[in-house]
Specification:
It comes from Anaeromyxobacter dehalogenans (strain ATCC BAA-258 / DSM 21875 / 2CP-1). This protein has about 160 residues and is of the alpha+beta class. It has a single domain, classed as GMP Synthetase, Chain A, domain 3 (2-Layer Sandwich). Helix content is about 30%, strand content about 15%. Helix 1 (about 10-25) runs antiparallel to helix 2. The radius of gyration is 17 Å and the shape is globular.
């Protein structure tokens, strides 16, 4: 008996539904609500009409922009901190991504979400952004980039990781 396909993460499934909704239009918003848990929060933004998108954008460029978004408490960007779970390859300027927070009820959640929005729309090729913030799976120290984790431990952050 051959094993079945690899199970997909909840974040992966949410990203697929978000991307489908972006392609199908706003009438598909009900699909998003059915696809993500109540713990997930979905955000969708469109570039203002007075500032039309120009050019293309790639997932690598999205990731580069997200390196500019710093966790307000730790001063580490959301990519190296391991908060970004997935970035779909953008199509026609439509960006979809899934990220998490370091803890449920993070007091900086609103600021992080707004910083992500600003950073992505700073790229001229971004027309629309769809962001899902999920807590499943929960963030852990293992998600932090190894070189950043080492610096954090040297400076006293993440001490619980050593015990």
């Amino acid at each position: 008996m051959s094993p079945g396909p690899e199970p997909r993460s909840r974040a992966s499934r949410a990203l697929e539904w978000i991307f489908a909704a972006l392609l199908l239009g706003a009438s598909s918003a009900i699909l998003i609500a059915a696809a993500v848990s109540r713990a997930d929060t979905h955000y969708a933004w469109i570039r203002p009409a007075g500032d039309p998108a120009r050019g293309d954008v790639t997932a690598a460029q999205v990731r580069e922009r997200l390196h500019e978004v710093l966790d307000p408490e730790l001063g580490i960007d959301v990519v190296d901190l391991g908060l970004v779970y997935e970035i779909a390859e953008p199509r026609e300027g439509k960006v979809a991504l899934v990220m998490t927070l370091t803890v449920p009820g993070c007091p900086f959640a609103k600021q992080l979400v707004e910083d992500v929005r600003r950073a992505l729309f700073a790229h001229p090729g971004v027309k629309e952004v769809s962001l899902t913030v999920t807590l499943d799976p929960p963030w852990s120290w293992e998600r932090v980039a190894p070189e950043v984790r080492k610096r954090m431990i040297e400076h006293g952050a993440g001490a619980e990781e050593r015990s």
